[in-house]
Design a protein that fits this description.
3 strands; three-stranded antiparallel sheet; rod-shaped
């Protein structure tokens, strides 16, 4: 049996625990959501780079065709998930390489995580 004095000493302890734990809980929640948003932007960037490399690696294709394919892919799928996008590519006799760089959405004001993904494919040619 607890005495009335010990019950009185613990009054308000749940409120103090909530004041300490709620910010930590919200930080974990927002970090998880921010991680998911960053991962989604990263996935879009690698898919666009692969699409550009695939288009440029065709037998008589050009770097411009790859850039157009990557841009069209992002226009169709990215929305606001990936912004300020730059697409760079090169095509040699052996490989087609593309890099997509952009900014992911952020839950933290003033912070814009940068995403950069690259893809390379061998160029199709008759042998």
């Amino acid at each position: 049996m607890t005495s009335p004095r010990s019950a009185r000493d613990e009054r308000g302890s749940v409120s103090v625990e909530m004041v300490v734990l709620m910010p930590l809980l919200l930080l974990i929640l927002f970090a998880g959501v921010q991680g998911a948003v960053y991962y989604h932007a990263r996935t879009l960037a690698i898919a666009a780079a692969q699409e550009g490399a695939r288009a440029a690696a065709r037998e008589n294709a050009t770097t411009a065709a790859g850039t157009a394919a990557a841009s069209a892919f992002l226009a169709d799928t990215a929305g606001d998930s990936l912004t300020a996008v730059t697409i760079t590519g090169s095509r040699t006799a052996a490989t087609a390489s593309f890099t997509v760089r952009g900014s992911s959405l952020s839950l933290i004001p003033g912070w814009t995580p940068t995403v950069e993904q690259s893809a390379s494919l061998p160029v199709e040619r008759l042998t």
